[in-house]
Amino acid sequence: MQALKGFKDILPDEAVLWQQVESTAREVFRRFGFEEIKVPILEKTALFARSIGEATDIVEKEMYTFTDRNGESLTMRPEGTATVLRAFIEHAMHLRRPINRLFTVGPMFRHERPQKGRLRQFHQVSVEALGADSPRLDAEVIAMAHQLLVELGLKAELQLNSLGCPECRPGHRQKLVAFLNRHREQLCQDCQRRVESNPLRVLDCKSANCRQLNAEAPAILDSLCRPCEDHLTLVRRDLEALEVPYSLNPFMVRGLDYYTRTTFELLTDALGAQSAVGAGGRYDGLVRQLGGPDLPGIGFAMGIERLVLLLQEQNGTPLPGPDLFLACLGEPAADYGFTLLQQCRLAGLSALMDVQGRGLKSQMKQADRLNSRFVLIIGDEELAAGQAVLRNLTTGEEHRVALNDQLGDLLQTVGGADGAGT
RNA sequence: GUGAGCGUGGCUCAGUUGGUUAGAGCACCGGGUUGUGGCCCCGGAGGUCGUGGGUUCAAGUCCCAUCGCUCACCCCA
């Protein structure tokens, strides 16, 4: 038996990095006033079809969709925004406060061919700011995404674009399709197909020919209506004021249909073909489209696997070991040690001892392999004397501590050292 | 869905033109030190060579099929 293709076990060495990503995200988001919301991973299929777009690849061929015992079509969420918005609408959260700043963390599912940094079950931290169309909110959200990467010690390039709105986008699309059709023979196979299915995607093509042609293609930025243009200008002004570095990429496109105006991606060159560690944008018509009030919103998602891969490439973080290992010699000492072990744990220490009756040398070796900070050696003599030998495995220093009910010496030394030297 | 590469102990890999009991390093266990870890030395355990079939006196090695993994395309976090 083995895990399904594209599904992965996260072993302890790697789980440590996940904890680092998640706790850093929670801390940064907290400072920006974002609150956690926990939502189901299973929804009615229609929710995703309506929000992401019927004609997108995700909906057409990548969703884990099945019929449940009641005959209803259900889908394992392929992204986070639709679900959070459903919850937002269902609980009338817009009445709770004027702007809801929400985030959620958890698994997403897409039936794609697995690749480096891309799994069928992957995990995202997903952020949504709902209730205002102010460009300042865009800047705030983008700055927060940027800050999370900074605090994880990761470098990524922030690219910004605007996709316009229902007012100006159709005009641009028309101009673009006309242009592409005029130069159809110069496009690659894929792009010839894209002209029909998703003309914007042509702008994002990596083939040299297409890129060259794209440089002359009508840019969305030139077709923006006045309000959209002003919006972008103000977002840029705020990002500059906050000293968040970015570059404008007029060719950036999003895979989901619901985006309007501001879109952005956080890109790295360290993950092979999977260059995006995070991406997001504004989705002003989406809440209404899902049957809620006509409220604007902006959000982004970061891929946890991709962040962890980046962390792994940067440092080799050793697993933190226990605070204390009890090395006991003989049964009386082991019996005493076992109760002492419990006292240590109740007092807040991470503590372990051998349960297989092994020799001292072997126990010392175990303690070393576990990366334990201290070892307390207890034999018959120590029991009789009411004193045990406490050895610091980092420095090799030893001294005797009293074995009494208070454990004062022991807790002060081990607890007080607070991870130093490990 | 398309293309390419790779499957040998827990991990990383070696294995000559097919030729005896399939090796190494790391990790694991024991001993050298019967009460002291890391370094060193000695020993041990652990492998249906992904799976099935075929060719051959003989297959880890050649052929076919199949499964799995990886990378890339598509698309995307």
Describe the structure.
It is a single chain. This protein is an alpha+beta fold. It has two domains: 12-168 and 224-314, Bira Bifunctional Protein, Domain 2 (BirA Bifunctional Protein, domain 2), CATH 3.30.930.10; 324-415, Anticodon-binding domain (Rossmann fold), CATH 3.40.50.800. It has helices at 12-31, 45-52, 57-62, 81-90, 135-152, 169-182, 189-197, 199-202, 208-214, 220-223, 226-241, 286-289, 304-314, 331-346, 360-369, 380-385, 408-417, and strands spanning 35-36, 42-44, 64-67, 73-76, 100-109, 121-130, 157-162, 247-248, 260-267, 276-282, 297-303, 324-328, 351-353, 374-378, 387-392, 398-402. The strands form three sheets. It has an eight-stranded mixed beta sheet with strand order 1-5-6-11-10-9-7-8. The protein has a five-stranded mixed beta sheet with strand order 13-12-14-15-16, sandwiched between helices. Helix 1 (12-31) packs antiparallel against helix 5, helix 1 (12-31) crosses helix 13 (304-314) and helix 5 (135-152) packs parallel to helix 11 (226-241). The longest helix has 20 residues, at 12-31. It is elongated. Residues 418-422 have low confidence and may be disordered. The protein binds one RNA strand of 77 nucleotides through helix 3, strand 6, strand 10, strand 11 and helix 13.
